[in-house]
UniProtKB/TrEMBL annotation:
The lineage of its organism: Eukaryota, Metazoa, Chordata, Craniata, Vertebrata. SMART domains: KISc. ATP binds at residues 87-94. The keyword ATP-binding applies. It comes from Rhinopomastus cyanomelas (Common scimitarbill). One of its GO terms (biological process) is spindle elongation. This is Kinesin-like protein. It is found in: Cytoplasm, Cytoskeleton. One of its GO terms (molecular function) is microtubule motor activity. InterPro entries: Kinesin-like_fam, Kinesin_motor_CS, Kinesin_motor_dom, Kinesin_motor_dom_sf, P-loop_NTPase. Transmembrane segments: none annotated.
Amino acid sequence: GREARLRVVLRVRPLTCMETRRGDQPVVHSLGDGTVHVSAPKHDATFGFSAVFDASTSQEAVFEGSGMRQLVELAIDGFSCTVFAFGQTGSGKTYTLMGPLNQTETQPAAPGLLGLMQRSFSCLLEQSRSHGSDLALSASYLEIYNEQVRDLLSPEPSCALPLRWSKTRGFYVENQLCVDFESLEAIANLLLQGSQRRRTSAHALNRHSSRSHALLTIYIRSQAVSTCPELGGGACPSKQGTLCFVDLAGSERVKETGSSGELSVEANNINRSLLTLGHCISLLAKPQGKRTYIPYRDSKLTRLLARSLGGSGITLMVACISPSSRCLSETLSTLHYASRACRVTTRP
């Protein structure tokens, strides 16, 4: 019942080969102790977060330093937990969550390159084994593409699913497919199968740009135990927690990406939903007494994240940025966005 602040961490990716060849200069520098400094003409600012991971930080160090392990344990305890990555297109969001894009079921990524999702699955299954057979695990995988919700685990993922609201469940997706799993291999394959169905395209800034927001949710149900010492030998109540991974499509400027036609329509829908998310975060960051109506209903993304952002959930936000001088405007936008999110509180 106590208030908890959103935990916000920052990841700065390395300069790409193209940026290095072009002569881009790094303008973002980690100062240690969760602070980062932006140094460029007309821009000199310092930002503070729960943790900052620079270009040399390994995937394992990001997992341990972000608090992801604790989030898995809280989900097992029955809390609603969410982690989402956001930032400019090509800033490393999908790599941070999933690892390399070229991995397949037959050619998995090297263990050291696995992202937050696979490492969380491994941690979850380790905890499940230590709990014995009283944990039941299942997963759903959705994408929001051009403001339509699609099921990435369904054999017919092109069908749009309706988004509903109820007093007990809040916003939820009707008729989504939920798949039970018991092994690391099974959930890893579900992740890869769904990711291959996700909409992606190439443009000037990113050869594998995500054109949709993706939400993978793990449902963790603890079965009621017949005897519970805390209740004088009576039955222990069952608990259900969730662990939701949100890979947001990257913000992008059509002028920079060279998008046209369908790509331009997708970019406009992506930017509009991210703008609504940013507006909700700005309002939630205000003191409780000064908050006005929070417009969760203005996009399907904010409806599905309503509980995580301003309700009873526990949330980790991973802001991903490029250190390149050419990306300075988008980088500053992401840093300000993340700084506002640091002031948002929930009541888990």
